[in-house]
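User: quick one, fold this
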Amino acid sequence: MSGNLNEQMDVIRKGTVEIIPEEDLIRKIEKSIKNKTPLNIKLGCDPSKPDLHIGHSVVLNKLREFQDFGHIAILIVGDFTGMIGDPSGKKKTRPQLTFEQTRENGISYFEQAAHILDKEKTRIVYNSEWLGKIDIHKLINILSKFTVQRILERDDFTKRLKEQQEISLHEMLYPIMQGYDSFAINSDVELGGTDQKFNNLIGRDMQKRFGQEPQVVILMPLLEGTDGSEKMSKSLNNYIGITEEPKEIFGKTMSIPDKLIYKYFELATRISRQELNKIKIELNTPGINPRDLKRRLGFELVKLYYNEDIANTAVDEFDKIFIKKENPDNIPEYVLREYSIKLVNLIVLTKLSDSNASARRLIEQGGVAIDGEKIHDINYVVKQGQEFILKVGKRKFLKIKSI
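Assistant:
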């Protein structure tokens, strides 16, 4: 074990919304240090979302901090509960996944999470290992320890009842099954976003009812996306993926609203509290350009998921394109074999846009340029023999060559 009580608590408190109850966490850490025995830190993985973004990194970074103090990180892949579907924040029943889908997605989650966690010090387990073995007698015993009133306390169910939206019986099992996970691995601490509070507290209840010392629940805030308003989500296209290309991570970071700079530093990077305090002071200092702090933020994120050299390259590339207005050094090439092709079709063909309608909008909005000159004509035709650099949006470049 490393770090005394004050050191551990200072790091663990950073960025948290709630620690329930904090006095229990202090007692657990004191006992851990005294007996030189690590705590079991639980994080449940949602196998319906295998593509991780920095919104997911908020709890993963906190889990890594526990690892750095010598505690055991336990990732629970909900391959069994994934077949039920977490109803948290949902207005209707979620589609059920197959067992094979949950397993495949769980492996992908772990591989991506390893960008943040110490892979060698992380236990990955599947809750089908114990939930799949529960027979009807055991299930009745578990269910007897909870009331319908307790399960209906969760806001999602209450809202759906008021709106006369259906609640399937299997959905009511989800928090109970997730709570049983805490008992099965003898969890000392469970991490989650604020939207997981109900499920995490059920874990405490489950442990108490089976005579086990209850876990401490640590809730982390939900991170807004690059639009500055909605929760980060791939479906809303306001996300920064942790496995994206370095230039994409850096470029998207530069696009966030100024109001999110501190929050992203606090929750999505691993800089110290002292450095955070300096950033807070800089943000409130007249004459400081927020763009410079975003460059630092982008650098920290790329360094976290790649390395410092690649992060420096991402900074240089961004400066070259957006400040010096030059083309990047390494532009992929595409060989045009058609005699002639409409620019709209070329943009889709080269996967710089996903549809003709989207490509037309980009042209109309001035988001497409050939050799630095914006093209506004949606009927523009590229003829064979033309060679040029095509720019689509802010960060997509392609060198068009002909044969």
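User: anything notable?
Assistant: The radius of gyration is 25 Å.
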